[in-house]
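Database export, one record per block. Field names are fixed; values are copied verbatim from the stored entry.
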Amino acid sequence: IHVYAAGNDQGACKQQFGHATQLAKNIISVGGLNPDGRMSTYSSFGPLPDGRIFPVVSARGTNVYSTVNEHIYKSMKGTSMATPTVSGHLALLTQRWMQLHGGAIPPNYLLKALVANTADDAGNPGPDYKFGFGILNARAALTALEKEWYVFDRIENGATKTHEINVPEGVGELRVMLVWNDPVAKKRYAANESPMVNDFDLSLTVGG
């Protein structure tokens, strides 16, 4: 799985949106936060030129104690400091999956689904172009992994499929997310044209 820093260009356009430089389809882009969980003044915002969510998740990027040249440590900031936090937690989720599945490596889109759909909502309600799907919550992602709150499936072009979820009494929130690896586009796309090859529509019906 590929994890990329969202960039530090928030101030380049006078607080406007659309500072993203990482446009790839199947990556996890990471925004950088202050230690108290507030949005930093540097983290680049979405959307991507075709409207896709950016970043995917956010994590602490300010006042991070990290290694620097000449074998010393230094307090640093930037989305490049937030990205290793997400990468490290993805490595731990991968290790746990391997423990539970005989050493097999998890699909990268499953890891993306786990961290995106279990992130702590921040900023505007729901996904937004500052925090993405929210602040990384690796403990919640681990719970979803261990409890097997996911389904793998395939679908043909033009077809529909139904999956039933039994929600226990007292559950305060249900999140449903559809994630896939989109294939390589076989044409040159215009700047604001969506490069997505597959177009999936997800609908949720409660109680019939």
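Remark 1: Residues 1 and 107 are 8 Å apart (CA to CA).
Remark 2: Residues 79-100 form the longest helix (22 residues).
End of record.
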